[in-house]
Structures are given as structure tokens and as C-alpha cells.
Amino acid sequence: MRTRLLGIDDLLRAQPRVVVGHTSSPRQIILLMIVFGFLYGAVMGSFGGVTGERFWQVVYSAVKVPMLLSLTFAISLPSFFVINTILGLRDDFAKSLRALVATQAALTVVLASFAPFTALWYASSADYQAALLFNTLIFGSASVTAQLLLLRLYRPLIASNPRHRVMVRLWLVIYAFVGIQMGWVLRPFIGSPNAATTFFRQEAWGNAYVEVAHIIMRVFGW
Amino acid sequence: MIRWFKQLDGILRGDATRLSALKDGRIETPIGGLSVVTVFLGAVYGVCIGAYAVIRTGGADHDAYMQMLASALKLPLLFFLTLAVTLPSLYVFNALVGSRLSVLSVVRLLVAMLGVMLAVLASFGPIVVFFSVSTESYPFMKLLNVLVAALAGFLGLAFLLRTLHRLVLAQIVLDTQPPSSPTSAEGGEDIVDDGSTDDPAGALDQLGYGTTGKARSVFRVWVIVFSLVGAQMSWVLRPFIGKPGMEFTWFRERESNFFVDVLDSIAKLFGG
Asked: Fewer Cβ in 10 A, N or C end of chain A?
């Protein structure tokens, strides 16, 4: 347990051994991701209460946060792998992969560390829209933090071959593109008090970018 | 089959196009197995595109499965037909400017290029399927596919130009060296590196100094022609995605063109 927690410390400090060494095995890091993702998800889903049927929203959200991250990761990985190979970075791919997985875990750790704020917010306001906005903010800041960490983990790789900088940027583009849509599809995470508790929201199926395009259109009055 | 994938992997990694592999100014990438793998990857991506039609109709519609099958067949066809349309003129101009690249080398090079393109395309398959599952909007799917194909095409053509540059380079090295180079090269200062370990460049790395050859200008022009022909070929071979509400056909009527439709799709995406 203690070594596991030290693994988190290494991770957050972006110690080189996270990428190169063997102190934290991928399995351990994935375990971290699941545990902490579960933790934040549970808190996130507690908006409508934790008793009765609402308990299930807590469970669903807890399952869905690690799901969101791992599905996004899995879908984005093939193209990242092939383009890495073409750019001649295949020999470093194991290191890149470790940096990416570590970033996923770090994202959940950061999220979990924000969980008390979310709980306090829920305790002080029953406004669903505000809760939605607050969670967006939390996810946004956790993502930015994780990406900064990724850039730090990538620094030795970029030093060895500047082309890694292109790849890490490309990863961010692909990951964000898929991740935003994944978050949209996997709704609800918070659980509107007026809606029934469900794992997926049927009517929520749709494309986030198309919605955004429509909003832009409406704003400009086209 | 696995051996063929390894050959493709060698091309993607740049092993097949290292200077040491291009020693005689010839490219030795395989054609047969590689073409099979390329067609297979194209079919995989075709299935990914066709997933949109199947999911939109709830998987109950026979036409949707036909669309998926048609896309799987037509997608490799799109790339090979584009090549077939542009290859004759490439060969003629390549020979006219006196390039030493033989017909066989040109074909090998182009098959390797298709391998790169379709590998990139297939690697975006999961993303396309994911958006197919969750998207109603037909214009969005069209634009997403155009974007992915453009990226794959760009990387493939970049691979082609860089490899060509290396071929020219390898030939220059060959010309400046006496045939009995291994013994005459002093102190092992062989310009053509025998060990591929000292040659860690990837498939897209630019090697050495710039050389201007007429053959390169021919290829540069050809790259543009290939892109335009490919784009229009995709229009001729449509439908790939299958517009919701339209009956399945293998091909559509002759009308409009690719570029007009892309602009139209952008307008529709914003216009609802």
C-alpha cells in the first residue's frame, strides 16, 4: 500500500522513473486510474442524494468516469501508434505509452483531490445547472493539469527527438476530440434531480460538435 | 499474412527505405503481399465508414449491410483506381525527364505509399466507428471522413516524396563510389552505411543535402494530381457512408463534384 502511494507521489512529481523505470508497473497505474476515477465519479453522482434509487446514480457515475477515460484512450491509441511509427518514433513508443497511461492516472488523482470541493458545492447548492458548470470547471482544470504533467513527462523524449513535440500535440488534439464526444455520449454523470436514474440517457445520444455548430449558428443568427 | 504485416511495418518504421536498403538506387519493397494487406486495411476502414448506415437503421435494414459491404469493397478500389488513373502519365513523364527509376521501382514505391495511406486510415477506424455510433448528423460524418482521408493522404504523399529523395541520394552515393567500394573506401568511411543501426531515421526523415532532380519535380506535380484525382474519385465511387433516407445503390448519378459537396456539407453542418 505504501509503495503504491509513493507511486502516486512519483507520478505527480513527474519523476523520470515513471517513464523509464520499473517502479510503477502499468498494471499498478491502471489500478490507480480505476480507484481514483471511481472515487471522483461516486462523489460526482451524489448530487441527487445517496439513498434509495439515487444510490445507483452514484454507482453508475463511479463506473463511468474510469470508463470515459479508458474508452477515449483505447479509441485514440491506434492512430497515435501508426503516426508515431511513420515519424520514426517507434523505438520510443513504450516510453510514450507509459507517459500517456501515467497521465490518465494522474488525471484521476487530480480529480479525486478535487472531490471534497465538489461535495462541498453539492452541500451548499441544489442548483443543477450550477452543479453542471462546477463539474465542467473541475474536469477542465484537472485536464489542463494532467496535460501539463504529460508535457513534463515528455520532456526527455522531446529532448531526444524534437518530433515527439509534434506527437504530443497531436495526441492532445485527438484525445480531446474523442474525449469531448465520449463525455457527451456517456451522460448523465451528475444526474438531474428531475430525471430518472439511468446508466445512459437515451435522448442524450448525439454529437457534441454538431450541437456546438448549431449553437454558433444561433448566436450569429444564421 | 503476418509476414505481410511485418513488411508493412518495416515500411512504416522506415526500415525498408533506409539508404542502406536503397543501395543500388532501387527500391526493394515487396508488392504482392503488401497489396493484399493494403486492400485488407482499406476494407477494414470501409467497414468502419459503413457502420454509420448500420447503426442509423438500428441494424435491421438489409440495405445498410449492403452499404457496409459496398464501402468495404469500394474503399480499397478508390485508392487503387486513383493510382491506376495517375500512373500512366507519371510513368511517361518520369521517363521523359530521364529518371533512372524503372517502372518496377515506381510501382513498388507507389504500392508502399498506398500501404502507408491505408495503414493511417485504418488506424483512425475506431474513432470513425465511435462517432458513427453517437452521431446523427450526416454532414458531420462526411466531413470527419474527408478530414481523416486528407490526413492519411498527406502522410502517404510525404512518405513518397521523402523516399524519392532518398532514392536520388542513394544514386548519387552510388555514382561517386567506385564499384569495388568495400575495399577502396579508406578507414571504413563508407558513405553508404552498411549497418542500419547508425541510420535511425524514420520513414519521413529528410536525409542529407537537398538535391534537385527533374524526376522530383515530376513527382511533386504528380502528388497534387493524385490528391485531386483521389478526391474526385471518392465522389465518383460514392456513396461510402450512405445518406439516411436514401435507397442503397452501388453508385450514384453523375452530378456535381467533390469540392462543391464539401462546402455544402460545411454549410449544412452549421445550418442544421
From this structure: N
Q: Residue type for B202, please?
A: G
Helix axes B214-236, B138-175, angle to 10 degrees: 160
Q: Which of the residues A67, A72, A170, A210 would you substitute to probe the B interface, choosing the one with the greatest number of B C-beta atoms within 10 Å?
A: A210
* Residues near A151 by beta carbon (within 8 Å), at least 6 away in sequence: A168
Interface contact flag, A81 B119, Cβ < 8 Å: no
Q: Which one of A85, A88, A210 has the shortest CB-CB distance to B135?
A: A210
DSSP three-state, residue A119: helix
The residue length of chain A stands at 222
Q: How many domains does chain A have?
A: 1
Which of B127, B145, B154, B207 is the best substitution to test chain A (most A C-beta atoms within 10 A)?
Answer: B127
- Tens-of-pLDDT digits for all 272 residues of chain B? 788 888 888 888 888 787 777 776 677 778 888 999 999 999 999 999 999 888 888 777 888 888 899 999 999 999 999 999 998 888 888 877 777 778 888 888 899 999 999 999 999 999 999 998 888 888 999 999 999 999 999 999 999 988 888 887 777 776 666 554 444 434 433 444 444 444 566 777 766 544 456 777 888 888 999 999 999 888 888 888 888 878 888 888 777 788 888 888 888 887 75
Shortest distance, CA A10 to any CA of chain B (angstroms): 31
ipTM of the modeled complex: 0.77
Out of A75, A209, A222, closest to residue B127 by CB? A75
Distances (CA, A) of A171 to A41, A98, A150, A174: 24, 14, 10, 5
* Closest CA of chain B from A85, distance in Å: 5
